[in-house]
Design a protein that fits this description.
Blueprint (H helix, E strand, L loop, with lengths): L13 H4 L24 E3 L11 E3 L10 H10 L7
Antiparallel strand pairs: 1-2
């Protein structure tokens, strides 16, 4: 980077440039009730590929096997029994 040049525009905060993280507390494989979840909560990861390792992760941990709880909720709504009657 050239001398005197900032890594971000002056009107932007560095946090504005960060990509959103897919954190464990938003993942379907984090084995904790979402209502009781926080970034500091420690719970097991129950992803089928990782279960054998008995990983305990915090809510603000992340990995590349993330699957959103919101997507699961949307899928559930689409397959709701109410639509079948």
């Amino acid at each position: 980077m050239p001398k005197g040049r900032k890594p971000y525009e002056e009107d932007e905060e560095p946090s504005d440039l960060e990509e959103p993280r897919n954190v464990c507390m938003d993942c379907v494989y984090w084995d904790v009730d979402p209502d009781d979840a926080s970034e500091e909560t420690i719970a097991p990861c129950i992803h089928p590929d990782l279960e054998e390792y008995e990983l305990m992760v915090s809510g603000d941990s992340s990995c590349n096997l993330f699957e959103s709880r919101e997507e699961e909720d949307e899928d559930y709504d689409e397959d709701s029994d109410e639509d079948k009657y």
